[in-house]
Design goal:
This protein is about 35% helix and about 25% strand. The chain has about 280 residues and is α/β, with parallel strands linked by helices. It starts with 5 loop residues before the first helix and ends in a 6-residue tail after the last strand. This is Pur operon repressor.
Length: about 280
């Protein structure tokens, strides 16, 4: 790489770190990349660390020793997360989101990369320090959120299918009960997709009674895998606590009443903000 001015180097280093969250990067990587002394690189990193942490972008951790280096950990302060969620609630409460049958239209929000990036960062922050090997979701609407969360954690995504695909080889399939409709569904996961005894973060866009997430939990049991946590974008109050099939999870938004007749929606910050 050609010799850069310090200001240019700072910009390039920042971008490099943002693209490699949770990767331990030796100082020699930057020294060789920019043809600069490690002492100069250390000074640059101190500036970047101050900005990252001052602006609530995350932490820049320094690891000493021959095998050390720097590691960027994306994190979002709780007050910034709450501000984002309040904005999301404003979007969700628009009356034109009510669909026949009292369903809520969310696909446009799930299709906004910038919005999903922020939501994924909040979920990743909620599970900071928890050992996780991979992020799991079920097709299809939860995929953008799962990938956004995994990107912040620097982890792969495992996709559970509702119908087994021949192109994925042999798979494990299970039946599960949908908590909202009390009907039987099937989900499957390729045997090659997940290593046994993995620690998995389950991510989903919407949870009513928790039947789908419960199905993924059961599916993980077939792989001797462990649930490291469950994060959902929106949970519904349409079912009572005693009817919910899942109780240990983190939610960003809690959906209250969806009144089709009055065209009214009420939503509140999720349980992440009540602990």
């Amino acid at each position: 790489m050609k010799k850069l001015k310090r200001s240019q180097r700072l910009v390039d280093m920042t971008q490099f770190l943002l693209e490699k969250p949770h990767d331990l990067l030796p100082l020699s990587t930057f020294a060789e990349r920019y043809g600069a002394a490690k002492s100069s690189i250390s000074e640059d990193l101190a500036i970047i660390k101050e900005v990252f942490e001052g602006e609530g972008m995350g932490e820049l951790q320094t690891h000493a020793g021959a095998a050390g280096g720097v590691k960027f950990i994306p994190r979002m302060p709780m007050e910034m997360a709450l501000s984002f969620v309040r904005g999301l609630i404003s979007e969700l409460e628009h009356s034109d989101r009510i669909l026949p049958g009292g369903y809520l239209y969310m696909s446009d929000l799930l299709g906004q990369p910038s919005l999903m990036e922020q939501a994924g960062k909040i979920i990743a922050t909620a599970f900071y320090g928890v050992p996780i090997d991979t992020v799991m979701t079920v097709e299809t609407k939860g995929i953008p959120l799962a990938y956004a969360t995994a990107a912040q954690l620097g982890l792969p995504v495992v996709l559970v299918r509702r119908d087994h695909k021949v192109t994925e080889g042999s798979a494990v399939s299970i039946n599960y009960v949908s908590g909202s409709h009390k009907s039987i569904h099937t989900m499957s996961l390729s045997r090659r997709a997940l290593k046994e005894k993995s620690r998995v973060l389950i991510v989903d866009d919407f949870m009513k009674a928790g039947g789908t997430v419960g199905g993924m939990v059961d599916l993980l049991g077939e792989f001797n895998a462990e649930v490291a946590g469950v994060g959902v974008l929106v949970e519904s109050d349409a079912v009572g606590t005693e009817e919910r099939l899942l109780h240990d999870y983190v939610s960003l938004v809690r959906l209250g009443e969806v009144d089709s007749k009055e065209r009214r929606i009420s939503a509140y910050p999720g349980n992440l903000f009540s602990v």
